[in-house]
Amino acid sequence: MEGDKKNLHDLLRHHGYDEDDEPHIAENLAETSKEVRQRIRALKKLQMESVKVESKFYEKVHLLEKEFQPLFDEINKRRTAVVTGQHEPSESECDVPLIHGASEDLLKKLNEDAPVEGVPSKGIPEFWYHVLNNVAQISDLIHEQDVPILKHLQDITVDVHTEPNGFTLNFHFGSNDHFTNSVLTKYYELQIAPTEDEIFDYEGPMVVSTKGCQIDWKENMNVTKKVIKKKQKKGSGAGRFITKTVRADSFFNFFDPVAETLKDLDETTAETLRNDFEIGQLIRDQVIPRAVLFFTGEAADDFDDFTEDEDEDLEEGSDAESGDD
Known about the structure:
- This protein starts with a helix and ends with a helix.
- With 325 residues, it is of the alpha+beta class.
- The chain contains 9 helices and 6 strands; from the N terminus they run H-H-H-H-H-H-E-E-E-E-E-E-H-H-H.
- It has helices at 2-14, 34-83, 104-112, 127-133, 136-139, 147-150, 267-287, 291-296, 298-324; strands spanning 153-161, 166-173, 183-191, 206-211, 225-231, 241-247.
- It is 43% helix and 14% strand.
- One of its GO terms (cellular component) is nucleus.
């Protein structure tokens, strides 16, 4: 086996191929005859057929998402009415535990420890801010200057599109001191079918472009920009301090009105776009439908457990690799 593997690697080098630039080749492939390799090529062609069937499955899923979205919207409208104080739920609408799976003692303590309201409240104050802040992947994007604005967030809704396939996230805001928009949007276009040159990398729909919206900031209230002072080093003004406006870290950079195609980007920017899509997909698939569970912390615990398990797997993998050395 070792000799065959060496011959395969020697062959690559002989023809001027750098193995680092070539796909990984399993050692067992070197042991196969030409006849067996021909049959393997047949399996590869069958795999291509399987991927095409898989993409048709995802096309159907996307159509089903569009078909069922109005049903979710109707439920979510009732949720919004409670959150914003338009509807006060009756006792029969509240006959579920505050925390599912909690012991009777904990539920009793939570009830006894609830603060007594001075001024009667309306709805669920700052509901969506706490929802987003309880999602680790999103809370990392929220900075101190964003908090007063996000406390005015009243709802997040989603529109599902076809022709082209995609979805839009709609962030509904009440009147605030920072911008005049009532809705901020983030659009994602999806490519559901695989491309021929990347067919074996197919893992389902992928984002191909994204577009935010213009935020109409009120004067001097743009939290995505900050003014810094820099000392001029060259020229006749050397030594003087000059002011410069630069980009500031902010949750609202999420709405930058860019529309770019993944294939046209360098790898660093493409990775940023992929991370952006993961956040958008997380909001669509988890945060919007399970908002109350993120508010209570129940869904956040599920995500924390997943992240910890994933980290442990990575650490174990690293240990295993170290042991091989």
